[in-house]
Amino acid sequence: MNVRRWVSAVAAGAALVTAGVVGGAVPASADNGDGDVNCNLGEICFWRYSNAVLWTKQFWYTADHGGYTWWAGGATNVRVQDDAVDVTNRDTQCNVRVGDLSAATGIWTWRYFPNDQLRHELGVIRNANDRHERCV
Ligand SMILES: [Ca+2]
Ligand SMILES: [Ca+2]
After folding, report:
1. Could you report the per-residue pLDDT of 24-66, keeping only the tens digit for each?
2. From CA 6, how far away is CA 117, in angstroms rounded?
């Protein structure tokens, strides 16, 4: 783990302790990027529609997409998993890969995206996204 991520994790842990949260893993819905609606530097941003920024989900870390929902001017109950068309990798350090796990074969299909700050179509895994991983 690099220094920046480590510092962030420690800060998040400290916040949870302060809030009185005891034990257990951080819930899957905890990763909300930097908490700002804009897709900012360091974030991994998913988009529900081409050429639109309203429906978005932004991450800071590697994550499974199950349990996460879209933001669309407010929280929604619409699941992100199998429902994204584009991704923007604004990670400061590395590529991100986005994968679809085939229920039939158990085999992952991955697509790799450079941290070029640009918005990319998910291509063959459009509306099939199950997970993304950074620095792999
Ligand atoms: Ca953000
Ligand atoms: Ca899938």
Report:
1. 444 545 899 999 999 999 999 999 999 899 999 999 999 999 9
2. 23
Q: How far is CA 127 from CA 2, 13, 66, 82, 85, in A?
A: 31, 33, 13, 4, 6
- Residue 89 CA to ligand 1 centre (angstroms): 12
Yes or no: say if 76 and 69 are a contact pair by the CB < 8 Å rule.
yes
8: confidence class by pLDDT, cuts 50, 70, 90:
low
Domain harbouring 66, CATH code = 2.60.20
Q: Enumerate residues with CB within 5 Å of ligand 2 (an ion).
A: 82, 100, 128, 130
Ligand that lies nearest to the alpha carbon of residue 132, given by its number in the listed order: 2
Looking at residue 19, its pLDDT comes to 41
The total number of structural domains that make up the chain: 1
Query: What's the start-to-end Cα distance of the chain, in Å?
Result: 12
pTM value is 0.80
